[in-house]
Amino acid sequence: MDPQFLILGVMWYIVFLFSTVCHEGAHSLAAHLGGDSTAFHQGQASLNPLPHIRRAPFGTVLVPILSYVMPPHWMIGWASAPYDPAWQRRYPRRAAWMALAGPAANFTLVLCAGVAIRAGTAMGVFRVPAYASFSHVTEAAVPGSAGAGATLLSLLFVLNVLLGTFNLLPLPPLDGHTGITLLMSPERAVSYLDWARNLQLGMAGAVLAWVVYAKVFDTIFRFFLAALYPGSHWG
Length: 235
Prior knowledge:
globular
């Protein structure tokens, strides 16, 4: 196996695991602040990846590695933070903010990566790529460790664009299906969540969401690229 492929895989996994832990940790911390300490007491309201790996070893270890090895060599996976359903029914608005905290963490990472990329470009360390792809948002202007930095920031930027926007889709079990209840009265929010829970979509809902998302991701990706590099165009 190509050593370069293995090195890139390690970078992918570092970014994936960090981004996923930030996402789930934000859920856990928001729930704790809102009165549900279920995830907090299991150690998930932190950046320690071990509680998340123990809870979802397939989604945090096996599936990401397998998805990277298989074409198109992207890394996907999942994790979850436990919560008390009774707390959600008692405080639907707090639960909605808890759900939106995960994507908010991803967009914060997008912003941090974008600021680092723009700063590196301004200092001449990075340059705008001639062609922007899913894992190639910036490239090094100078040799050496700058190349690894450009790759890590590119992956951090794009993977968190994907995680943040995908999880906002209003389909269970994604965060958007709970977050959307902020637009409802508390009573209607509880009825909606009970209805969605009774559908028992589970993984089928995630697959359906991915089919829908795949049709719009290119547009979303280009929107964020335009914000990162105003005035730049790619074919």
